[in-house]
């Protein structure tokens, strides 16, 4: 299995990654007290040391703008052609253009802006969407992808059925993509969708189905809820790990690499035991990944935060085939391969 040597004009590379997490902390002790679950279980079974919590006045767009400016350090925002937001749909306001707000806040005066949503898999899959757009449009040379999440607001620790979402933390990440960049080249993407899960999770009190009854909304319906946790787990547990492995394998295969060529996996938040099992499927260990136990689940920003930390720790090396992997309720599993470092076949 080989890789076709592409010309520079056919490449889209990652110029830089910026991330931001607020200074507020919800540690495992806080979550344990709020939920009634022993702290040891929060740490060892849930895989959470701490999550970050933004204050009420810090909005989703504000966190996204901070991550964006870090990704643009040393680069004039006026050189951007497009700003795309792919983060949480829980934004500053209901029905709100977060991409346009971030474009304005960072001074990207020459950029257009729009949004992509696929819940927590949106960041990984957006790389495919934007790569295709950039290669098809001569006007798109620099594109900034931004993910931000404040979904910690939507977690009700008193609701035991939503306990698998107690890992939600606030934070943001931004990725600067550049056409013709012969470094950190975005390769191919794979996705699996099972829409039978679409009605399992949501903020059930908000939306067109309940708008007429909004004033009577029960307090608990303001939070993310699981309609039937037992039924969801019965269907989800047997397939989710296999689907993660399948999309990782497929993204590598479509990029021209065998599974044993993968050198780094940048995951969505998952507890250590599941991550270790997934890594072992590719002959890898924790030294070939990053555990997000001190970040929590920052929605679709996770894989970018893991990629950035992997590089800073020396785990992600030039020449590695890295695969970013995520899953979003609904349910979608997605993976995108990246050839890290200088481009070569």
Please, what is the CATH homologous superfamily of the largest domain? Thiolase/Chalcone synthase
Number of domains: 2
Rounded radius of gyration (Å): 19 Å
The main pleated sheet reads as:
5 strands, mixed
Number of helices: 8
Order of helices and strands: EEHHEHEHEHEEEEEHEHHEE
- Which structural class do you get from the secondary structure elements? alpha/beta
CATH topology of the largest domain: Peroxisomal Thiolase, Chain A, domain 1
The 3D shape can be described as: globular
Neighbour order of strands in the largest sheet: 1-7-6-4-5
**Highest CATH level, the class of the largest domain:** Alpha Beta
Helix content: 25-40%
Low-confidence stretches: none
- SS strand fraction: 15-25%
Ends: how far apart? Answer: 11 Å
The mean pLDDT is: 95
Looking at the overall shape, the CATH architecture of the largest domain is: 3-Layer(aba) Sandwich
- Count of extended strands: 13
């Amino acid at each position: 299995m080989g890789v076709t040597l592409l010309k520079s004009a056919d490449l889209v590379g990652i110029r830089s990654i910026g991330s931001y997490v607020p200074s507020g902390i919800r540690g495992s002790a806080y979550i344990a007290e709020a939920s009634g679950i022993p702290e040891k279980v929060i740490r060892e079974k849930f895989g959470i040391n701490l999550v970050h919590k933004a204050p009420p006045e810090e909005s989703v767009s504000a966190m996204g703008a901070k991550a964006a400016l870090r990704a643009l350090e040393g680069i004039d925002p006026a050189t951007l052609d497009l700003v795309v937001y792919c983060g949480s749909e829980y934004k500053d306001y209901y029905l709100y253009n977060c991409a346009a707000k971030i474009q304005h806040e960072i001074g990207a005066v020459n950029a257009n802006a729009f949004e992509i949503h696929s819940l927590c898999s949106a960041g990984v899959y957006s790389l495919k969407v934007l790569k295709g757009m950039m290669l098809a449009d001569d006007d798109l040379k620099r594109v900034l992808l931004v993910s931000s999440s404040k979904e910690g607001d939507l977690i009700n620790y008193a609701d035991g059925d939503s306990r698998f979402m107690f890992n939600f933390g606030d934070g943001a990440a931004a990725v600067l993509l550049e056409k013709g960049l012969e470094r950190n080249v975005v390769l191919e993407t794979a996705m699996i969708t099972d829409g039978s899960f679409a009605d399992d999770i949501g903020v059930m009190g908000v939306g067109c189905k309940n708008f007429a009854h909004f004033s009577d909304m029960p307090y608990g319906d303001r939070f993310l809820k699981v309609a039937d946790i037992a039924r969801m787990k019965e269907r989800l547990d047997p397939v989710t790990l296999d689907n993660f492995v399948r999309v990782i394998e497929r993204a590598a295969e479509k990029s021209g690499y065998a599974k044993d060529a993968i050198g780094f996996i940048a995951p969505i938040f998952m507890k250590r035991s599941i991550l270790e099992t997934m890594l072992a499927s590719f002959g890898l260990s924790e030294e070939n990944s990053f555990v997000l136990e001190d970040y929590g689940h920052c929605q679709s920003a996770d894989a970018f935060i893991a990629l950035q930390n992997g590089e800073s720790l020396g785990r992600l090396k030039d020449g590695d085939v890295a695969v970013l992997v995520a899953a979003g309720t609904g349910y979608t599993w997605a993976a995108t391969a990246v050839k890290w470092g200088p481009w070569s076949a």
